[in-house]
Amino acid sequence: MLTPTPTANETLPFRTADFATLAEGLDYAARGATGVNFFSARGEIATALPYAELRLRALELAARLPSAGLARGDRVGIIAETTPEFLIAFFACQYGGLVPVPLPLCINFGGRDAYVERLRGMLQSARARAAIGPAELAGQLQQAAIGTLASFVGTHEELAALPAARPFEALGAGEPCYIQYSSGSTSFPRGVLVTQEAITANARAIAEHGLALRPGDRCTSWLPLYHDMGLVGCCLTPALTQISVDYIATTSFARRPMVWLKVLSEQKGTISFSPTFGFELCARRAANGLAESFDLSAWRVAGIGGEMIRPKALDEFARTFAASGFDASAYLPSYGLAEATLAVSFSRLETGVKVDCIDLGEDFERRRLARPVRPDQAHGRRTRAFVVCGKPMPGYRIEVRDDLGRPLPERNVGRVCIQGPSLMTGYFRNPEASRAVLLADGWLDSGDMGYMVDGELVITGRSKDLIILNGRNIWPQDIEWAVEKVEGVRAGDVAAFAVTGEDDQEQLVTVVQCRLGDGAAQEKLRREVHATVQRLAGADSEVLLVPPRSLTFTTSGKLSRAAAKASFLEGALRDLDELPTVLEPLRREARPLAVAS
Amino acid sequence: MTTTDDTIFREICGLVARFAPAGVQLRPETELASDLNVDSVAAMDLVMEIEDKYEIDIPINQLADMRSLGDLVELVRQQLKDR
User: Fold this and answer.
1) Which of A22, A459, A521, B2 has its CA 20 to 30 A from that of A319?
2) Residue contact B61–A112, C-beta within 8 A
3) Structural domain spans, chain B
């Protein structure tokens, strides 16, 4: 019977990421008994990999890397499946002086072509000299590597079978650690270059201040390892703090979300992160009596991040799983982004979700002022409850600035700018994109809009998506969420944006993915969406019903409104009404599961 | 080669029928994504149902290569053989 790695080390003193490099951190963790565990789609343990064994296997593989025709410092693309092989290859690069580039997975029917394009874009952008993946994806990887600089393209087994040589020197302090692709289009991906200094600094701040990690903590994760929240939060930070992790593949979670809670319950997990929709999926799938069969009482940090936090969905989860011993004070709203490695702010531990309810009237719309409304005053007003994402971690600073870069006082909505020890120095080999976000004073423009209240950050949306109608600010998320509640519409089906029409007037456009085949039903949906937007934003909106999969998402699952708007303006997004009766072949855009940051 | 009188084909049709827009006929060459509107969330539900019905594991990495109903039927057949 396979036994998962223990939760705590008996003799090895606990250290919170006070290492100069990732390799040094794994060397230390390997002196204990903790490690990582991989669970099957049905929640049974499949592999236990103590950090000691991960280190040995990574060192062994590191000795094969020179035989793949690589030079020290070369980039190595690795498909980031939730498997021991991915972690071994990732750490082999650390020990072997190469820079790993985690590559995404694809789970769409017929998504092959778009997936190959996406992989190729990343291999090209990273100027990868090698590309490694599981045997089942070898064909797609080979195809993606055509025309790129990759000279070795193969499986983990093929790499391991190369002759051993003297490995290159491990990646040292002051050197890169890995490249993270999290944003940008398929043709112009932007890779965040994360340094050893950045990863250790961010992991230290997360461990000491964000989560107050301690011996006895155990992490459970289904988040993909090709995203910052999965890789940094649930893989590298635990490795740097000798904490055991129980992994469920993202694809397993997507099929059977309850596996997440089953594993957490059985292994007595204390730390687990998810975007809001992960909690939502579980609450929705919880059949009668199922909640009672879990024991979630050890879960002390239920981290939330990666997308706008929706308090109602979290309330629903907490209500549903109270019977399992889930404590809503475990909720830990946080804010971060790949450009800062991962985390920037955390709310206070053991306090749960705190919302700031503000008036959406004139002051907000015209003067960008977030005036608080007490619940007893809310009657008859348009209000909105935003989740408070906490104070910046020690060493980090957050400033809300206006469009001219001037700092704004509290409760003024502006651009969220960040400074801290784990900011990227730039996107890899992309000075133009880097200049657009890295400010002259060394701060990073996050691209998010928000305001501060009592020193805590509140995120209200993405700045570039802000819709301004007749001088009033309208947040597209608000429209999208409202329309998603219309019957027949699902989360992720809606994109709202504004286009400039005649007389420079902004015209609101709401695009809805529609699965209804019947013309009368479509018209009914169109009327309902129009009415909903009218009610919410008080604006007339053009409503476009489009076939499913017309909207595009970033690799991290965020809706790309800019892409939707561009397609609309090009005339590529067309209403079902204008399409021929037999649906024309649709673009097969690689749309990963909308998971994680 | 999948034909319309194949048992597995007919069973899978039973599972995907709810995705089919009015007027779309279920044939081996019917495309899952574009003809049947099976998006990534629906795809996961469908995979789970197929796995439970046949007690097989569908390798998720192969979904990108599954374009048509016939492809899916062949995959199920292959997994049943390997079981």
Assistant:
1) A459
2) no
3) 7-82
